[in-house]
Amino acid sequence: MSDTGLPIASGRTSMRFAWRLSRGHRAKLLLVAVLGIGSAAAGLVSPAVIGVLVDAVQSGTADGRLVLWSLGLMVAAAVLGAIGTGVTVVLAARTYHAMLAQLREELVATAMHLPQGMVERAGTGDLISRSSDDVSEIADAAPAIIPAFTMTGFTIAVSLIGMTAVDWWFGLALIILLPIYVLTVRWYLRTAPQIYQAERAAMSDRAQQLMESQRGFDTITGFQLGQQRHQRVLTASWSVVGHSLRASTVQNMFFGRLNLAEFVGLAAILLTGFIALRTGQSTVGGATTAALLFMRLFGPINQFLMVFDTLQSVAASLNRMIGVVSADGPARSQVARSSTESAHVHVENVHFHYDEQSPALRDIGLSIQPGESLAVVGASGAGKTTLAAVIAGIHSPTSGTVTRPERTVVISQETHVFAGSVADNLRLVKVEATDKELCEALETVHALSLVRTLPDGLETRVGQGGTPLTSAQAQQLALARLVLANPDLAVLDEATAEAESAESGLLDRAARAAISGRASLIVAHRLSQAASCDHILVLDSGVVVEQGNHADLLAADGRYARLWEAWSRGRVSPNSDS
Ligand SMILES: Nc1ncnc2c1ncn2[C@@H]1O[C@H](COP(=O)(O)OP(=O)(O)OP(=O)(O)O)[C@@H](O)[C@H]1O
To answer: Which of 189, 298, 460, 505 lies at 20 to 30 Å from 391 by C-alpha?
Structure first.
């Protein structure tokens, strides 16, 4: 999956990105660290106080006042520690969620500009999984990281110093634990990242399967493929379960090794305490403090090392999210040959391959001046849609250069009607448009009378759950949107209506009105669309085989003339709908 999936950032890139993301939050993050250390310090008061009490009891100097003071101190430390921990966790969660929201915004913004080819190869499920599954993984785990590191790190350091101060033998006893911890962490860091990465990739695949099943619902029910799709979703879901189980197994093995270290550590400390008492190197109070400090260490040490597990999980998700955000760079450099600095369209020596075997476009050259219309015609599979996509910047050319105006709008074969009112659908491209402007745009594409017949006019709800629109009506709505957007270049690749239908004539007129006065490229699925354009380009197997205007091409009696003859055969007037 990874070779065809969206890019995954390296750890270093993610670190750099996370550092940039922390801008504006660093003071809060520092406060989280300081509060964490303060709370951890409060937790160390009790063992120290108990040690003093034990010694006082042993030496007979303990009295009620000392006990009460000690108790008061321990309660105050516990309360302060609890408040400090609570504030730390809430502040950390808030700060991380703000950073995460920023990352998600950047991810969505970048995803909108990724080359379509890249998203198609990876599958939209991968993108959706990165902006949902990965975000929740980070949201769940990340807030614990800084408090855990600072609180446990501080507790470990102070406990070690305290124990060594009681008797350096206790400090030495702990050193034998070091190799066990180092080896465990090394093993874990070698094993866990791939497992988490594979788990996230399986989640992407599951999202993809689910999404395809929803999108292709009609086809699936139409061809009775329900069982087959169900099986695919099931396989993808079980794959996630398998990977999650593998991750849990590695986690358990990790914790098992930590338990072994605890056992060895406790045995060493008890032995050291016994020897220290026997040789008179330590008092009972000192040994008690050392033992309590050591017992208190298990939790923080395990927590400290468990943060590595959290870190691996967060890093796997972060690398996937940042992979998309930083794909912006490569994606933009990929389209470097596509420039948007010009008011006209200029295409030179353009080649485009979907795959290595069969080039979809070969050595294309053309230009469209402002206000000029160019039609692309050719048999099915000739490369018309591909050429439109390359010119619109949806696909980057494999080689050659494309220059186009920045304000380019594409109307493709699939026009989506968004759930909302007709006005909402139009205002997508111009939020501030008045009702009058909306009506003018609809009038331009001959759709105003249609909208007036709808139950609530402009406010009629359309799209999912609303008044159903035919494909041709949806196309008219898209054309009205184009008029409102008022781009310098319009690329139309709409094949909604059959030739000679009442709708085809209406759509052709609507399209002509919508593109009037601006540079336009029209993928002419009906030759009536081409006849009215200033210039026509005939494609065959990705190569331009003819070009000129309608009259010249008919006079040349070549490929276009034959296409025209075939298309208009049987029609009373081939231009009747144009
Ligand atoms: N996403 C894709 N991946 C691989 N090959 C593709 C893809 N899209 C199109 N092709 C291939 O590229 C070639 C050109 O296809 P394209 O859709 O541009 O032709 P077209 O002239 O627009 O066809 P139609 O009129 O049927 O829409 C065809 O051989 C097609 O099979």
So the answer is: 505
